[in-house]
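Bug report (template v2)

What were you trying to do?
Predict the complex of my protein with cytidine-5'-monophosphate.

What happened?
Run completed; filing so the output is reviewed.

Input:
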Amino acid sequence: MVGLILALDVMDRNRAIWLAREVSEYVDYLKVNYPLVLSAGIEIIRELSEIKPVIADFKIADIPYTSSLIARKAFENSAFAVICHGMAGSDTLKAVLDVSDEFGGEVYVVTELSSESEFLRKFSDEIAMLARDIGCHGIIAPATRAERVAQLRKIVGSMKILSPGVGAQGGSVEETIKAGADYIIVGRSIYTSDEPKAVARDIYERIKGLEV
Ligand code: C5P
């Protein structure tokens, strides 16, 4: 199964809802991040969940207790999954996993960012091993460096790999899927387009054309 995730980094509730509806037949999940939640309130997760399951990309990276509170807010508002920073360490990931278990939710772990990420890159293999060993559901790996997606795939086996960085950040849909990603995360290429539905359809068809 390969698919598309829309990164909804817009700052307006109505625009977010409109975009989500517009592309819903081509996306598997909606990903919300701080720009939207800080603008529209956390209730936006619940509203969007009525259209598609929502991944709360809060890049949780705090001490275990605080991290668990953040995760709980996301799941209480109907998030399907949360994204955690693996750099926070095993105790934080375990605390977030415990909360996700209560809600039947999932936890995805950032290994390295799709941007320069020069510090995380030194540890991203170890972060992926940790995410695998403690039972997280997936990792975030950079579409901007397909060779890293391939390497991380070797480490995580059948865990989900979600890859941001296609389009605006320069990553390629085809190279990222061939390297082993399950889901491509795309934001600006879709939501800044005059025809978001057509762009989402094009990416969806390219992804599905590569499905083995
Ligand atoms: O607009 P664009 O397609 O570049 O959006 C990428 C999305 O993925 C943003 O929400 C960004 O925060 C997120 N992300 C990323 N790299 C990571 C993790 C998340 O670009 N490693």
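What did the reviewer find?
The mean pLDDT is 97. Residues 90-103 form the longest helix (14 residues).
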